[in-house]
Amino acid sequence: MEFIQKTVFDIQASQKDELVSNLDKELSSFFSERTYSSMVEEINIDLYCFNTPFRLKHHSRPVYHEDKTSKVFPRDKKSDATFHMYHLLFVDIPLPDEFATCSVDNAVAMIGDTMVKYFTEVNLPVKIRKSFDKDRFVADLKTFFDGYLENR
User: Fold this and answer.
1) Residue range 8-45, pLDDT digits in tens
2) Residue environment code for 59-69, b if the CB has 16+ CB neighbours within 10 A, otherwise e
3) Taking the model in full, what pTM does it have?
4) Residues 4, 28 contacting (CB under 8 angstroms)
5) CA–CA distances in Å: residue 60 to residues 75, 82, 87, 124, 143
6) pLDDT class of 111 with cuts at 50, 70, 90
7) pLDDT band at 146 (very low <50, low <70, confident <90, very high)
8) Of 148, 149, 92, nearest in space to 119 by CA
9) How far is residue 12 from each of residues 32, 44, 54, 101, measured CA to CA in Å?
10) Where are the beta strands (DSSP E) in 27-133?
11) What does the CA dihedral 2, 96, 15, 119 come to, rounded to 10 degrees?
12) H/E segment holding residue 112
C-alpha cells in the first residue's frame, strides 16, 4: 500500500516542513508492504495547521475514490489534462494549534497522537468500511510512532 503524507501549514508551523517530509518517507517505507483492504491501494493524508483565525476548508471525513478520472484544471475549458484515482483514500487531519510552537520531539508525538485518535474515532466511507482493517491499521500507526520516537 502506498502511504503519502503532505502538510498545509501556516508560516509559524512551516519550520517543521523538513521534519514532516522525513516522517513521510519513514511512514511510506513502513506501510509499503502492508495492506488493510483489497479496495485501498493508497492512503493520502493531508495534515493541516493554521494558528490563525483564517482556516482552510478541509474534508471532515475521509473520502474514497474507487475508480475516478478528474480534470487537472477543472475551470480551464481549454485543458483536457486528467488524472486517474484508483482505490484511493483521502484523509484531511487538522493538527492542534499548539503544533506550530511546540518542539520537534513534541511535534512528532503530536502528529502520532492526532493520527491515531483520528483513525480510532472516524467512520470510514461506507464503500470500504467492512473491508478495511481499521484496528490493525491503528495498531500499526501506534507501533510506527512508538518506534520512531524511540529511535530519535
Assistant:
1) 666 556 677 788 888 899 999 999 999 999 999 999 99
2) eeebebbeeee
3) 0.80
4) yes
5) 24, 26, 20, 11, 25
6) very high
7) very high
8) 92
9) 32, 24, 13, 7
10) 42-49, 63-71, 82-94
11) -10
12) helix 104-121
Looking at the chain, how many residues does it have? 152
Cβ-based burial of 124 (10 A; exposed 0-12, middle 13-18, buried ≥19)? buried
- Whole-angstrom CA distances from 144 to 32, 38, 134 are 13, 22, 15
What does each C-alpha distance from 27 to 49, 136, 144 come to in angstroms?
19, 15, 8
How far is residue 74 from each of residues 44, 58, 70, 77, measured CA to CA in Å? 21, 19, 8, 7
Residues 37-94 have pLDDT tens digits of: 999 999 999 888 765 545 555 667 898 888 777 766 667 777 777 666 667 898 989 8
Q: Quick one: pLDDT at residue 69?
A: 72
> Which set of grid coordinates corresponds to residue 146?
512508538
SS3 14: helix
